[in-house]
Amino acid sequence: PKVIHLKDYQVPDYLIDETHLTFELYEDRSLVHAQLVMRRNPEAGAGLPPLQLHGQDLELISLALNDRQLGLGDYEVAEESLTLQPDAASFTLDSTVVIHPESNTALEGLYKSGSMFCTQCEAEGFRKITYYLDRPDVMSKFTTTVSAEKHAYPILLSNGNPIASGEEDDGRHWTTWEDPFKKPAYLFALVAGDLWCVEDSFTTMSGRDVALRIYVEPENIDKCQHAMDSLKKSMKWDEDAYGREYDLDIFMIVAVNDFNMGAMENKGLNIFNSSAVLARAETATDAAHQRVEAIVAHEYFHNWTGNRVTCRDWFQLSLKEGFTVFRDAQFSADMNSPTVKRVEDVSYLRTHQFAEDAGPMAHSVRPESFIEISNFYTLTVYEKGAEVVRMIQTLLGEEGFRKGSDLYFERHDGQAVTVDDFVKAMEDANGADLTQFKRWYSQAGTPRLSVSEQYDAAAKTYSLTFRQSCPPTPGQSEKLAFVIPVSMGLLDGQGNEIALRLQGEDASVGTTRVLAVDQPEQTFTFVGVSEQPLPSLLRGFSAPVKLEFPYSRDQLMFLMQHDSDGFNRWEAGQQLSVQVLQDMIGQHQRGEALQLDQRLVEALRSQLEDESLDQAMVAEMLSLPSEAYLTEISEVADVDAIHQAREFARQGISSALFDLFWKRYQANREISRQTPYVAQAEHFARRALQNIALSYLMLSGKPEVVAACVDQFEEADNMTERLTALAVLVNSGFEAERDKALASFAEHFKDNPLVMDQWFSVQAGNTQPGGLERVQQLMQHPAFTLKNPNKVRALIGAFANQNLVNYHRADGAGYRFLADQVIVLNKLNPQIASRLLAPLTRWRKYDAGRQGLMKAELERILASGELSSDVYEVVSKSLA
Ligand code: HT7
Ligand code: ZN
């Protein structure tokens, strides 16, 4: 397979000013007529080079240049292209192709999801629809006519505004849509189906009325209100926070059941995985409600960060994704609890992105090369990319960042640009120099930042010395120093913040400040420090690094109590838990009896006792670091020791704090009983604490707790309480209660695929022995199919990523199972196959026996026949 390099980028030889498409949709084939108004790109030089259009799986029916039909000798069709020789600098090219959406299981291009037609064109799916210059720097004005049988497809949608429609004698009808904004082909969308819609409107800051519509299959019409509310909040927030207004007269969202990712920001016609739109109390958890709000916002925000200003090439993907994730995180923080949002994001980043950065697919936020771009929609491009934007904001300040974004939008509206253009706008608006900072875009790997302190009581000075390093990653053995913004403060013996004055400064500057660490080794000295302080470092997780400071357990407990930074209070608790758990992992490995350090229990007790604390944060504090995180921070991960140590700690905490858990559980459950479901932060918080308390309580096995759990399962009016009760029962030894609950849940929700996904996931996550056999059996369930990505993620993905003790069975059966599924999916849906592979690629983390077994499965996949570029790239890089 061909490797594409950033360094080889060239401007396009030709441009497409106008794109006129007509789709004739039928059950056994579809016809696509494309009229492209084209011209030579003046920036590309002189002469008329051959025109090479992208195209894949297309059956060419006719081709005409300026109305002249072309014959076989006039053009050349290859597997992925069509080449012809233009005879003038401006011309019109007409083509007709036949495609087969009805048999498209890859869910890329035009495909069928159930009975509806829909599209997914990012990154390179448009070339499966028609011959085109399918690259983001070719931007065109689109007019699209969709024609289909009226009874089966009453709704015909595309980008922009509807400008004409009509009926034909044969039962077919058509609608023409015109998008006044030029856009790259990856933002094209089409939908045809029997859909109902929820309608609303939004008045923009300049007083324009925008029609808002969410289209769903009729049975889901009662699950759209939360997404609609989220959309209106997002539109308002983008006006307030970034001064960005929506630009078309209509904004549409369509929910589809079969979708490879969460959603897609097509201009004016967002297409969503139904799991990212549908939410109501009875069927969706609090987490699902928050996910819907975040994804609706994310896709909406792309209208400016991605659509109005787009990417020059796919190496610049983080330009739109990193910035948009940053924006959706700011939005979610504003709508809910900022500290809880930050804790969730950082936990996710440190567990999963740090693992990616340390694995065989490690790449920089702006990658240098790829085989298959779909493999680069990664945690590094999205989440680390967002952290990089966040660091720019930390360095420039909120006002400076806003000046930079204003300049970026003003300068580049309507253009396809690069990460460098983004950074340049930030620099120019602030008179800043971010040259060294840009290494965050080009160097892969997670930097380590080790910190040591020195206190001089006589001189009243306190020094912090930072040493940074970054491990080698594929293709990058040496790294240069990053600019690491370290937000920090100092606490005195009473837990008060100390005013901060650096040597050479005239006066102190607040109690939290940002140190820009930009050398391999660097010391900052504070003056006027009259007692030995305790540092609070990397407040708010101000940089995506692994920070090392030799805190004692007592110091961590002190920070948990006193740090003014909410994130760092949680972080101190996590570090304390990690230290305690790592001790126990060692004890297990040495065959010793496990001992739980009671300081952790006491630290958690004080959290639970203090009813003035934010309950969501108490729930976060009580959540021990996950097995996946403990794996990530291990040199060699001992799956069984990690599981045993963590479970032992949970048991110990459960019995020591039983009475407190019971009290808080009962109080919150009582409020839940009496309060109708509300999808708002304080209610999320109450249920979060209630549910984590229940999960600890159930470890006691006491009959009154089991009865409460069954009661919560049966009586709850919302999925958050019901699903937690189910998950807790499933992981317990109470077989009768568990089987009854699973059966009644499936019976009640058998017609709701998204709820059945949760039923599959809960069972896939059951860590008791026999997990693989249970998953294999569930694959035979009538509600399961490998053709639906949500089902694959819910059952197989959840098993391999969350049920670590079962997936990593020492006999390798878990690996064999995963490889079998990848081999089948490679043919059906390569994007899903390659994503499913991730847990096999981390073989270097495990013991020699498991390493051998995992590598053998990767080699078996490699030898299994014709591999998609998606799977080939991941497998071959993992074995390299
Ligand atoms: N920009 C969208 C990316 C996306 C995608 C990429 C590859 C294959 C399928 C896909 N579906 C959506 C989603 C987003 O980040 O908003
Ligand atoms: Zn995005």
TrEMBL record:
Signal peptide: none annotated. Keywords: Aminopeptidase, Hydrolase, Metal-binding, Metalloprotease, Protease, Zinc. Residues 445-549 form the Peptidase M1 alanyl aminopeptidase Ig-like fold domain. Residues 101-187 form the Aminopeptidase N-like N-terminal domain. Its EC number is 3.4.11.2. It holds the Pfam family Peptidase_M1. Its cofactor is Zn(2+). Residues 554-880 form the Peptidase M1 alanyl aminopeptidase C-terminal domain. Aminopeptidase N is involved in the degradation of intracellular peptides generated by protein breakdown during normal growth as well as in response to nutrient starvation. NCBIfam families: pepN_proteo. Belongs to the peptidase M1 family. This is Aminopeptidase N. The gene is pepN.
